[in-house]
Amino acid sequence: MNMDPAGSGVRRGGLARSQLTAAPLARLFCCCRRCVRTLAERNRREPMRLSLMPKKSIFFTLFSQHAQNALEAAQALEKLVSDFTLLEDKVRDIHAIEHYGDNLTHQIIHEVNGTFVTPLDREDIVGLASKLDDVTDVCWDVAEMISLYKVTSIRPAAIRQARTLVQAAGEVVESLRNLEKLEGLEPHWIKIHTLENEGDAIFREAVADLFAHSTDPVEIIKWKDIYGLIEVAIDRCEDVANIIEMIVVKHK
Fold first, then answer.
1. CA separation for the pair 230, 203 (Å, rounded)
2. How far apart are CA 243 and CA 101, in angstroms?
3. Residue 44: pLDDT band by 50, 70, 90 thresholds?
4. 11 - beta bridge partners?
5. Helix (H) or strand (E) holding 16
């Protein structure tokens, strides 16, 4: 019996509705089974590989560049205090180095935000970038302070501090070169700690000498500030060493 499609009948053209839909569904089911079987065979031949870790991480390259930039800032500051000529040109040079350090820090933060799985903990990456940037920032602060304070001659203790800073920054460079492999790092952070202690001793002696032999209160204020800032730069190198030491503890 043929019924109107708009009605409530169960037949159309002599076929039940279940018969009308059964054939296409069966064909679809068979097609799906063939697709699944094909994919399974392909996966057996070519196993799927999911890599969450980048093969070559840009972070370690950026860290090395940042450390080298910090060393260049320390060397430029040492040059400024050792050869107290063309002061404003040298201050500008250090400012340019500091600006490049800021750019490196921003790039590292950008990479952290765009990377799903980072090779190190995010807080360690950001901490390293920040402390490396601090080294260049403080070198710039010292140079700018010497210029703003109208310093006319450099005291020997400042030269000794700057040389200690260069040594510490050099150890930071070597540490960051080996960070990806996490090998051979301990001698460098031990050396940085030793240099920081030497820097503390130089600072204390310099301040003691300042108060013992200077009669001009303005000079005392100027040089206490300058000595203090150079000491801060050395401390920031030790901060980098401390972060590296913690990274090794976490990942070794």
1. 9
2. 19
3. low
4. 16
5. strand 15-16
Tokens 């053209």 — which residue?
A: 13
pTM (2 d.p.)? 0.78
Q: At 57, list the tokens.
A: 């991480």
Residue range 58-251 forms a domain whose CATH class is mainly alpha
Closest of 227, 224, 207, 245 to residue 131, by C-alpha: 245
* 6: phi then psi, degrees, rounded to nearest 5: -80, -10
Give pLDDT, residue 126.
Answer: 97
Model confidence at 132: pLDDT above 90:
yes
Contacts of 63 (CB under 8 A, 6+ apart): 108, 128, 129, 132, 176, 179
pLDDT, residue 251, reads 86
pLDDT recorded at residue 174? 97
**What gap in Å lies between CA 78 and CA 15, rounded to an integer?**
96
Q: Which two tokens stand for residue 54?
A: 């980048």
Report the range of poorest mean pLDDT among 3-7, 123-127, 140-144, 196-200. 3-7
Task: Please tell me the chain's helix, strand, coil percentages from 3-state DSSP, rounded to the nearest 5.
Answer: 75, 0, 20
- Say which residue the tokens 């001009």 belong to: 216
- Residues 223-252: tens digit of each pLDDT: 999 999 999 999 999 999 999 999 999 987
* 30-66 burial: b if 16+ Cβ within 10 Å, else e: eeeeeeeeeeeeeeeeeeeeeeeeeeebebbebbbbb
> How far is the C-alpha of 142 from the C-alpha of 12, rounded, in Å?
93
Confidence of residue 33 (pLDDT cuts 50, 70, 90): low
Domain segments of the chain as ranges: 58-251
